[in-house]
Amino acid sequence: MTDPTHKAVNDPEEHADQPGQNLVTRDHEVIRRWAESRGAVPAGTPDVTGAAVSPSTLQLAMPGADARADEVSWDRWFESFDRYDLRFQYREAEADGTTSTYWSLDASDREEG
């Protein structure tokens, strides 16, 4: 059974059905557009190998927020996102219609949508 408060998004032209709805995606362009429209930049701390960004520090640094990690390239951010098989949960707008900056990452082995 799908959760009506969540919607899987696989294309940048797909949007929430109503304000406050949680969306989930693995699509790089959806994530990049959402982040850039809010002035966020990819950030993280290299893992112990230095080859990828540690999944526990992978983040989107929002303007005015205290950054807890260094800015990284989108390529490096997405390489780690894919390597650790994550999915991006987010909202386009809050229930009151205001622009949302809510997002989180979790393991993609959970059901989408």
Fold blueprint:
Blueprint: E1 6-8, E2 22-25, H1 28-37, E3 41-44, E4 59-61, E5 70-71, H2 74-83, E6 86-90, E7 103-107
Parallel strand pairs: 1-2
Antiparallel strand pairs: 2-6, 3-4, 3-5, 6-7
Compact overview of the structure:
Residues 1-25 are annotated as: Disordered. The protein is of the alpha+beta class. Helix content is 18%, strand content 23%.
Question: What do you see in this structure?
Answer:
With 113 residues, this protein is an alpha+beta fold. Helices cover 18% and strands 23% of the residues. It contains two helices and seven strands; from the N terminus they run E-E-H-E-E-E-H-E-E. The termini are close together.
Count of helical stretches: 2
Helices and strands, in N-to-C order? EEHEEEHEE
Strand element count: 7
Rg of Cα set: 14 Å
Query: What number of domains?
Result: 1
Instruction: Going across the biggest sheet, name each strand in turn.
Output: 1-2-6-7
User: Largest sheet, if any?
Assistant: 4 strands, mixed
Low-confidence stretches at least 5 residues in length (pLDDT < 50)?
none
How would you sum up the global shape?
A: globular
Assign a percent range to the helix content.
10-25%
How widely separated are the two ends?
Answer: 9 Å
Strand content: 15-25%
Kindly state the mean pLDDT as a whole number? Answer: 87
Structural class: alpha+beta
